[in-house]
Each structure stands twice: as structure tokens, then as C-alpha cells.
């Protein structure tokens, strides 16, 4: 009896083990079927960034880079740009290694692509619950431009705020979209993320407004919206207090109106706006224009800039106020021209090719370089921050691999326009639900294209943060629920249909006493 009992226990244990093994195999197979394609894409994206780091072991520097480095080293906010990215660099400063900064920024790019995939996958999965392979088939391609665009990878390699800014916006959008019913703490987290993004790049402030409007459209409720507004106040107020301690004014920068002035010089005519003499020094009428240089760039940084007549140029206390007065007059007296330049530069993002804009030198800095070079000012600040890792180096053949890759592997302007059109279709198809889940990412992508064109100037670098949201909106457009027509008739309809199909007793069919047709015994 004991032997029989032991054998029985063994058989039961074996059956349980086999059942657990089958469940594990099913789960593994389900994961591979559902996410295998994206896993391969993510692995390839990691390899691409590893190649970039091998080819260019240090950061690629841009004209804005010294400003960020100086703020990170001096703990003094910049007058030109918000210092959120400098705070990020400050947090990584203990490593004294630019390779660490590179790795973190590339990881942020991978995270942004993964979040885009996850949001599209969840949306399509809810629409197609019985098709485990469909969500991955839709979501994985949506993440490809975010993970594989060569200019996105190159931007992650630069000492610039764009990668951090983009990832923060993606995370903020994900918090809003993750739950159908948004709790108040998610609203607070949303406000915190978007306000911190505004401290990384000032264009984040309009993105916060877009997020709040879309939260209201999603009927998130007053508690999450109020929590978002309340949480957004604290980081911005804290930064403005820091700025006040350095410059005596509560602001994020002291140059916001200067960038708007640069926008308006593209069309402003002083014969129309008639500025007062103090402001007239900023007029560009009659001055020669370099066709290879954007008007805004020439007006701000050129040798004939009106700010050159001020003691401290752009940093002069009068500069921002004079620029604001000029820009306001130009917009109010030439509104049609202002709308035209916004329209032109917004749709420039959808044109094929990449023109050398705003200057040929600026466009060249968006390419992986052939040789290693660094300006003296950048070299000093770089060594102070990253020591020997600041030395510019290009390691072949990895550098050539990335240069060859960048020649063809990027999202063309017409393709971006097509994805924006798909997203717009998704919004219109969900008009009864105020655009549904597509509204927020599509509106964010549109705002990221329009706001720089309205407040500063066009730059291909400003287009790249819109890519994740354009792809997210396009992917979610396909997350629609197909019409589920009943394959079996309703009970009442079935009863009527059955009665119509059955022969009556008058037609010779035998009936039982209960009135039902006597079909005889069913076969087994």
C-alpha cells in the first residue's frame, strides 16, 4: 500500500510539473508572438547606439553647448536658455565622464521608443483582444523612426537638451494615456513632468497647456486637472526664484522676446510698423541679406545686428524689452505676414530633403563629423566637466559606419507629413469622443512643429521631438474596434426564423402533442 501511495503521489507531482511547464511554454510563446518583433528592433537599436559610442566616444558639441556647461559648472542660471538640462548635467557631473552622459541620453532615446511601442500596443490590444499578433505588428513599426532615425541618434549624441526634453514629454503623455480613468496623483505627476520639461526647453510651457486641454477633452475630471496645475507651479516657481537670486527678476530667461524678434524680422517692415527711435535700431530695412543665412540668425548673431549697438548685445538689460516692443508692433500691424511665415515654416518640416538652414555651418553640425575638432572655449569647459573624456575623437571604422548610415536612414519630410495626416484621420474618426486617444499625441506633435515656427524660427532640430508623437498618433489610429456583427441571430429572430422554416401539419409533417416538430432521436 505504501508503494502504491508513493507511486500515486509521484504521478500527481509529475502531472503538476508537466502542467506548469506547458503553461510556461504557452506564456513564452505568447510573449514571443506578441513582442518578438519589437524585441529584435530594440536589440538592433541598442547595437546602433553602441556603434555610435564606439565611433564617437565623446559628446558632439553645438553652439548652445557652452551655455549648458557653464550653468552646470557655475550653478548660475543662464539668461539665454532655461537651465533644466544643465541641472541634468549637474546630476551626472560626479562621474566626470562624457561617455556616461552619452549612454544616459541614448538610453532616454531607447526609453522613448519603448513607451511609444507600449502605448500603441495597449491601444491595439484593447481593440483586437483575440489577435495576439496584431498589436505587435502595428506597434513595432510605429517605434521604428524613434529608434532608428539617424538624426535622432545623432541628436542623442550631442550636448543638447533635446533628447531629455523629448523623453520627458513622451513620459508625460504616457501618464495621461495609461489609465482610462485618471486618478488625481497621475494628474499631479503629469504636471510635474511637463513643468520640468518646460525648464529643459521653453517650448515645454505650451506643451503643458496642450496636455491640460486634452485632459479636459478626455473627461479626466477636475481633480486630476487641478492636481496637474498645482504640481506644475512648484518647479517653475522654484526655478524663477533661483533666477531672481541671480538677476533680480522672476523669469525663466531674459531673452524670450529676443527670439520672437528674430521670428518677426523675416517679414517686418519699419515703414509699416513705424517704431520709436530707440527701437528703430533693430530695423533691418535696407540692410543686405545673405541668401545662405536665415534672417533670424543674421539679425541676432550677424555683424550688422541691431543688438551690436547695445553695450552688452543680447545680454543688455534693454535688449529684451526693445525686441519685445518691435515684435509686438510687427505682429499687430502685419498679422497676415506673420501667419504666412508660420504656415511656411510649419510645412517646411514636410518637404523632401534637408536644406542647409538656418546656415550651412549649423546644418553641418547635425551630421556625424569626419574629423575631430573642438573650439577653445568648448575645450576648456569640457575639460572642467568631463576631464580627458572631453577630447574630441573619431574612431574608425565605426565613425564611417554611422556617417554612411546617416546618408539614408532618416524619416523624410513627406513621410512625416503622411503620418501626421494619418493621425489627423484618427482624430476625425473619433470626433464624437473629441479625438479619443489620438488627440493628445497628435496635438502635441502639431504644437511641437507650430510653436517654434511662431516664436523663433525653423530648424530641423526642432522637428525631431515631434516624431514620437506623430508615430504614436498614427499607430493609435489603427486601434479601432472592428464592427462585431452577431454570427447568430437574436433569440426572438431565431424563433421567428425557425417557425418560418418548419413545415406545418397541414403540409403533412407530423407534430407532437406539444406542437413541436417530432425530429426523432438525435444521432450520437
Describe it:
- Keywords: Membrane, Transmembrane, Transmembrane helix.
- With 524 residues, this protein is mostly helical.
- The protein has a domain of 337 residues.
- It is 64% helix and 0% strand.
- The chain contains 24 helices and no strands.
- Helix 7 packs antiparallel against helix 8.
- The longest helix has 54 residues.
- The two termini are 41 Å apart.
- The C terminus is likely disordered.
In a nutshell, what does this entry contain?
With 524 residues, the protein is mainly α. Helix content is 64%, strand content 0%.
Topology (SSEs and partners):
Blueprint: H1 2-55, H2 65-74, H3 84-92, H4 98-127, H5 134-148, H6 150-156, H7 162-178, H8 184-200, H9 204-217, H10 222-247, H11 256-264, H12 270-273, H13 277-280, H14 295-301, H15 319-333, H16 335-347, H17 360-364, H18 376-386, H19 398-406, H20 413-429, H21 439-455, H22 460-463, H23 467-477, H24 491-501
Helix pairs in contact: 1-4, 1-5, 1-19, 2-3, 2-18, 4-5, 4-7, 4-23, 5-23, 7-8, 7-9, 8-9, 8-10, 9-21, 11-14, 11-15, 15-16, 16-21, 20-21, 20-23, 21-23
Uncertain regions: pLDDT < 50 for 5+ in a row? 8-14, 484-524
Main beta-sheet strand count, sense and barrel state: none
Oligomer: single chain
Radius of gyration: 30 Å
Structural class: mainly alpha
Q: What is the end-to-end distance?
A: 41 Å
| Order of SSEs | HHHHHHHHHHHHHHHHHHHHHHHH
Organism: Actinomadura macrotermitis
Transmembrane segments: 32-52, 98-120, 132-152, 159-178, 184-213, 225-243, 408-431, 462-480
Keywords: Membrane, Transmembrane, Transmembrane helix
Biased composition (Low complexity): 501-516
